[in-house]
Design brief:
The protein has 96 residues and is α+β, with helices and mostly antiparallel strands. 38% of the residues lie in helices and 38% in strands. It has one domain. It has a three-stranded antiparallel β-sheet with strand order 1-2-3. The longest helix is centred in the C-terminal third of the chain and has 26 residues. The termini are far apart.
């Protein structure tokens, strides 16, 4: 009876606008049979985000999904949303 522990990314999801989510699981196994598992980390990877510390599998998926046009569209949308929120905040802070 050999107990082993493995930590791996068991789920990679591509969302609208190219955002990628990953889920990490830690499994305790005995002779190849899972005795226990726990989801230990979830991560969101936005288009254009640095992925140098990710696994090779995640890097390959990011490379396939985060094409220049996807990154450009995402950063444009984020910038527009930030400008809109800043304008709302400025309007709310104006004296009446």
């Amino acid at each position: 009876m050999a107990l082993t522990k493995e930590v791996l990314i068991d789920q990679i999801t591509i969302l609208e606008e190219g955002v990628i989510q990953t889920r990490e699981v830690t499994r305790i196994m005995e002779d190849g049979v899972v005795l226990s598992f726990q989801y230990t980390n979830r991560k969101i990877i936005e288009p254009g985000q640095d992925v140098s510390e990710e696994t090779q599998k995640v890097k390959e998926i990011v490379s396939a999904v985060h094409k220049p046009e996807v990154v450009s569209a995402y950063t444009t949308k984020v910038a527009a949303k930030q400008a809109e929120e800043a304008a709302k905040q400025a309007a709310a802070e104006e004296p009446k």
